[in-house]
Specification:
By secondary structure, this protein is mainly β. The chain contains no helices and 11 strands. Strands 2, 4, 5, 6, 9, 10 and 11 form a 7-stranded mixed beta sheet that branches. A hairpin with a 2-residue loop joins strand 9 and strand 10.
């Protein structure tokens, strides 16, 4: 099993910054990628940023240039640095871990952390 524990959400004014952390534990091998997704009320869950095992990153167009995903392999932790936050960034942010289990892709999710940006 995989456990993902997120932290770092909160309330911030537009233009401010927050850093989210996601600590992974358990069966954290054969990881293909880790990332952050977000879900606003009444909307679907969308990818924000991902980092694959080789270190490449991918971002949603709406956050490019403002958000940075990084990882600390020694701590099994992924971070999301969010700068120049906008009201439309308000959502519950979920950490995701994508790995292979017996040749089958599996996704694991954290409990989510609320990010609220006031305008």
């Amino acid at each position: 099993q995989v456990q993902l524990v997120e932290s770092g959400g909160g309330l911030v004014q537009a233009g401010g910054s927050l850093r989210l952390s996601c600590a992974a534990s358990g069966s954290i091998f054969s990881i293909a990628a880790m990332g952050w997704y977000r879900q606003a009320p009444g909307k679907q869950r969308d990818m924000v940023a991902i980092i694959v095992s080789g270190g490449s990153t991918n971002y949603a167009d709406s956050v490019k240039g403002r958000f940075t995903i990084s990882r600390d392999n020694a701590k099994n932790t992924v971070y999301l640095q969010m700068n120049s936050l906008k009201a439309e960034d308000t959502a519950v942010y979920y950490c995701n871990l994508h790995k292979w289990v017996a040749g089958i892709p599996r996704d694991y999710w954290g409990q989510g952390t609320q990010v609220t940006v006031s305008s």
